[in-house]
Amino acid sequence: MTPPTTGSTTPTTIGTFDRLLLGSRRMDVATAALLRLMTLLCNHRASLRDMLRSRDGWVDFTIGIRTESGSVERSITFEQGRAASRRGISGHANAVLNFVDDRALLVMLRSTPNEVLTLILDNDLVIDGSWGHVQLFNYLLAQVAGAQHDRKLGRIIRDDRARRKADANPEHERGRDAFAARPATRLRAAAVDPGVLHLSDPYLSDYSLEDFPLLRRFLDDHLAQNPEVCAERPRLLTDWHREHGFETDATGAPWDPVQRQGQAFAHVMRHKTPVIRDGDPLPGTTTTKPVTGSVVFPDAQGLMIWGELDSLDKRMLIPFDISPETSRTLHHDVFPWWIHRNFREWVRAEHGDQLSQQVDERWVAYFVWKSIGISHTVPDFGPILTAGTSGRIALLKEAQQTAVDDEAASTYGTMIECLEGVEAYADHLGAHAASLAAEAADPDRAADLRTMAAICGRVPRHGATTLREALTSLWILWVALHNENADTGLSLGRLDQVLQPFFDADLQAADSDAERDSLVRRAIELTGAFFMRCTDHFPLSPDIGNYLFGGASSTQALTLGGVRRDGTDAVNDMTYVLLKVTEMLSIRDVNVNARFKRGTNSDCYLRRLCEVNFITAGTPSMHSDDAVFASLRPHGYSEEDIRDWAATGCVEPSISGKHMGHTGSILFNLVAALQMTLHDGWHPRMRLQVGPRTGAVDSFETFDGFFEAFAIQLRSLAALAVQRNNQLAAVHAQHRPTPLLSSMMGGTLRSGRDVTRGGAEINSSGTSNIGLADVTDSMMVILKLVFEERRVDFASLVSAIDADFEGHDALAARARCKVPLFGSGDPEAVAMANRIAGLVHDTWTNHRNHRGGRYTSGFWSMSQHVAYGCLTGALPSGRRAGKAFTPGLTPQPLASKSFLDNIRDVAHLDPTNLDNNMAFNVKLVPDAKDSRDTTVSTMEAYTKTYFDCGGMQIQFNVVTAETLRDAMAHPEAYRGLLVRISGYNAYFVTLNREIQLELIERAEFGL
Amino acid sequence: MTGAPPLIVDIKANCLDDGPGIRSVVFFKGCPLSCVWCHNPESIAPRAELSFDPDVCVGSGECVDRCPEGALQIGRPASLDRDRCTACFDCVDACPAGALERVGRPLDVAEIARLLLRDKPFYDHSGGGVTFSGGEATGSMHALGELARTLVEAGVHTLLQTCGAFSRERFERDVYPWLTTIHYDLKAADAAHHRDVCGADNRTILDNFAWVMDRASRGGAEVLPRVPLVPGITDADANLDALAHVLVVNGAPKVQLMAYNPLWGGKALKVGRTPKYTGGWMAPDELRRCADRFERRGLQVVA
């Protein structure tokens, strides 16, 4: 397998021959030889020389290679189709690869392109300059070493299979059948929720997946097929820009970027191939692939896969299919055109190499999502489903008449153009459906395709009147949005609220019970087909993504339940229909989040949430409205708006339809700030003086003095992240506005501004702060052992940490066993966690984002608790180097033997510090002898009590470590095994080994 | 009137197998019986004891320096001379790893109640409560009664797990009014056999059983009789038949059978006791045979 990203492990083993190379100057000679070989091949082998040519001519660039010691310093230049290598690196190099030592360079020279990214994560390779050019260089290297790389990737996969086989243990298979049998037992219930108008058993227990052969087929395809990379959007987009210009238009005048983006988008939609999958009741696909495809965003992070283009299908984790033609198109026609036109390079061009960018590109202290996208929000679908795009266009035309300024008038016009592009796409789908109907052999399918064609004639242009029209309209809009916005958690919002009127209208029109039953069944099938379409839209990610964001999909959050804007119970028929689909399909994306309002929502509903969580093992995640409301009130939103919150991406609250919250702006490593405090502002992994000098640890006389130094380091690191985020936000606004998304967001009709430019009604940026439990526990150890009990002096503790506690067993044991930790029920530890969360919250609150909004603070971690943990040394808490942090803000397994202590402590965190939500992960193990009723009742009691005590969010993995180990050894038997990481779901078997082990080692509580 | 605070081994929260709902179990220290298979051997002696787990020991030697009696020795394995130990527990504080622990802590009733009531919302939402176990909780009769009363007055469901060897008069006066449910363990029907394997006569136990069953039939605390199935000791047909007879004549409608769990052995060694009995997991057909002995008398067997 691809190796873990720990500092102690390098991607390639060093052999005897290699050892000879590691002598003095020998690496320099080897590097020179390799570069000379590349030069020769490029200059004399036509096929390779051809790789240097884009559609716009030769790609000229220079890459430097050096080691920190200076033992190697060479460069290779490509100019007008000729390559030349030389000693030394000129100041004009597009990028320089800095290796920590000869060994790292040797590893790089022998690595496959995906493995190079592992070196980067380890900070053994630091890139200065353009990542696009480095990726191009990697691509060329892969051409030179292609066959060798393929053999190596094959070997990695073979070794992995052998290792898995060796790990197999028949005892772990004990629970396999019981696990597989979970969907067969289903509770039923009498309807008690006032909003449930039609379902007599809202749990819909009579239905199972086997009643829906279409969904069964879609699900099997989904689990069996790799997503395929699609070149259509990038090709259309690049061709349009080649003709019409990017910075300036065909006449040489500077473009208005909003107009340019709108016209290019409309071009893509007008020329997009209409695709209808066999049997699908919903027309359209985000790519040209009928089953599962990936959109490429060369105008965002798309270039990151350049080096891997020819090995995407061979990598071990989440491989992608890619045709040679697609690869060629992307390499020759698309990527070179965008090599200077992407977020990273725009910021670098404007600001030069800055510390804030360096830290971002070293991956261990923060990650700023705006290098990928900004559209982490919930569009306002309700009005468009009701009044259609034509209704929206009418409003935009009206607004145009009274536009506040030229930009507004032009922006309204562009939004109209975008919506018309969507309508054109719908027309093409309609025509395609009609032509498929004419060819269809099956008369039922032909009739259905004719219906589909008629529906495409009505929606999204006009308001939907049936559930099928509403879902068709929504899906076409969703396709359009994903052809404008890179995959960063664009979210569906409160679909039960949006869809209920259509379901209700369908059912009202029914004449008989039989017709009603058939409509309910059809609603489940349509909604299921919608889920499958969403889940089969899968983001393209370089292999590094498998380590940073293991198994993550686009993370299309959907929100259920809670209360309406007027405060009344929002649970309705569609809430339960969507839950039924969630239960039957058990897929990683859509990311289902359920709201629960104490005193308003019924126990019947909460119980159903728990049952679905049990059957699927990992979804939905559950939120308490009381706590989320409390976290949002200090922002001054109206009470109606607060009641209308929806989860975005993972768990984060946005006010539905009007809130540009980019809630996943910054993934921030709190532990990095602690490490910097322990090392006087120096970050050991980055080998950089990132923060101010706050003093050596033995200079702190009191714990409060130390804590203040931590606050200083945290603030300085946060300020860097803010600088980076705001600069990226500025280039979004300047170069890549999103007028289609803007046309669907509340507030833009009045402001006349794109949402990247602050046009939405509400603006903010969300952070996620990773490692709260690890930092709290470390602070408790420092407080108790260093300052209160004086068991160890501070400098000795830091020496022990730097030695990864080697030879300090007693100290490590005392830290782990004798200090009250967060989650143990100890009030002092909870107070410490609140103190740190408060500091974090106040730090972010003091900043403003590019759109004038506030920063919010969340405590969920995606899979960054594993990635950051792998890259982080030992901690005062006794945590060893390279171990994962705890997910979200979950207490560490040692904290207490009682899950109730965990629940109480987490519930006692002050919600006002958690205004970007949190993730509390709990692994529950059901008792085989308990009835379904007992198991679900216990889960319900936990959840209810947690909410009563003030808890905000909770997510259960109801699966044993034994079953997870079985799945590691027999992935083929667990293709669809869903697990909750931290805020999102993934298929366990697609995860890297470190994340798999983290899930296995999580505390396990009996049910 | 307040007596000496009872010795508590542990308060275990989030228990799902000791009565209905989510429960906390209070383990009292001290037991009038000494069953050879006892699953909680650390709770038999009615005094605080030192527990040492060599598997957890990291060999820091900090305990050796702290021990005023020279009872501890570092080495592989580290050792503890229990004859020298005066149970001052200084070493527990010194040990960084938690390998040395004090078993049995005097906690006054108010403090126990405070700890238990933190979890009241869980009891309420799950139909759970507090279970008194041990050792033998009735060994601290007065404190048990006070505790049960405090909990009932706070609205908590109470359950006693007992071996039945208690003074009925005091039990009836101090404890019984505050119990909702009793799990009543019956081990051996024959008096001599009982003396042999449990270290005491079973007459009181059987008398008390008749009494709680009688009270239950008249609206008193609900009783669930339980029989531990210990291979070669309690699981003989003759014993089970005799116990079934006791249950039937006392009007019990059901019985819980508790299969022997071999995982407890290590617990005895930690407090310096040598396990007097070791057995393995019971086979399913053995369990079936045992259940059959009760079912043929019309008793319902619960898992």
Describe this structure in words.
The complex is a heterodimer of chains A (1007) and B (303). By secondary structure, chain A is an alpha/beta fold. Among the domains of chain A are: 205 residues, SCP2 sterol-binding domain (Nonspecific Lipid-transfer Protein, Chain A), CATH 3.30.1050.10; 178 residues, no CATH class. Helix content of chain A is 48%, strand content 11%. Chain A is built from 38 helices and 26 strands. In chain A, the strands form eight sheets. In chain A, strands 11-12-13-23-22-26 form a six-stranded mixed beta sheet. Chain A has a five-stranded mixed beta sheet with strand order 5-4-3-6-7. In chain A, strands 10, 16, 17, 20 and 21 form a five-stranded mixed beta sheet that branches. In chain A, helix 26 packs across helix 27. Chain B is an alpha/beta fold and 303 residues long. Chain B folds into two domains: 237 residues, TIM Barrel; 55 residues, Alpha-Beta Plaits. Helices cover 33% and strands 20% of the residues of chain B. Chain B has eleven helices and 13 strands. In chain B, the strands form three sheets. Chain B has a nine-stranded mixed beta sheet. A two-stranded antiparallel sheet of chain B has the order 3-6. In chain B, strands 4-5 form a two-stranded antiparallel ribbon. In chain B, strand 9, helix 6 and strand 10 form a beta-alpha-beta unit. In chain B, helix 3 runs parallel beside helix 5 and helix 5 runs parallel beside helix 6. Chain B is globular, with a radius of gyration of 20 Å. The relative contact order of chain B is 0.14.
